[in-house]
From TrEMBL:
It is found in: Cytoplasm. It comes from Cronobacter condimenti 1330. GO terms for biological process: phosphoenolpyruvate-dependent sugar phosphotransferase system. The keyword Kinase applies. Its EC number is 2.7.1.69. The keyword Lipid metabolism does not apply. GO terms for molecular function: kinase activity. One of its GO terms (cellular component) is cytoplasm. SUPFAM superfamilies: PTS system fructose IIA component-like. It holds the Pfam family EIIA-man. This is PTS sugar transporter subunit IIA. Keywords: Cytoplasm, Kinase, Phosphotransferase system, Sugar transport, Transferase, Transport. Its main location: cytoplasm. The lineage of its organism: Bacteria, Pseudomonadati, Pseudomonadota, Gammaproteobacteria, Enterobacterales.
Length: 143
């Protein structure tokens, strides 16, 4: 089962998790991180690292963030480069999480990412999709 780290501004992540629990019961391999004004990037990184550690059951982890380019998205992007089978998705909403929750048990991380971005429409993107638009810079001597 894919782990979920829901990381959003203010208390949105906690609220989403509470509503998902009310609908589906206990949320295994799911952690929330709330980012509020004044929280340092260092503390956010530590909180997300802890959440990642608790959400990782070995099948991969999906970072679910509210705002593309926001602090939770940026920290998740940095963490995902060092963690195999992790994906970063931005622009989530509660209806989208409800729709995708059952699929976390049957899909691998890349397939889940693609399905979630497709289901979310134009307001949802992923780090992978953004990287396809803007490939990483390659030094000439690295070719």
């Amino acid at each position: 089962m894919l782990g979920w780290v829901i990381a959003c501004h203010d208390y949105v992540a906690r609220d989403y998790a509470q509503q998902l629990e009310a609908r589906f019961g206990a949320l295994p391999l799911c952690r929330t991180v709330d980012y509020w004004t004044g929280l340092s990037t260092n503390m956010l990184s530590r909180m997300m690292c802890d959440a990642l550690w608790h959400a990782d059951g070995g099948d991969g982890v999906i970072f679910l963030t509210d705002t593309p380019g926001g602090a939770p998205y940026r920290v998740a992007a940095l963490m995902s480069h060092k963690h195999p089978h992790s994906e970063v998705i931005a622009g989530i909403s509660l209806p989208l999480l409800v729709q995708m929750y059952p699929q976390r048990a049957s899909l691998d991380s890349a397939t889940f990412r693609d399905a979630m971005v497709k289901a979310g429409g134009e307001s949802v993107t992923s780090l992978w999709h953004q990287q396809q638009k803007n490939p990483p810079f390659v030094l000439l001597h690295d070719k």
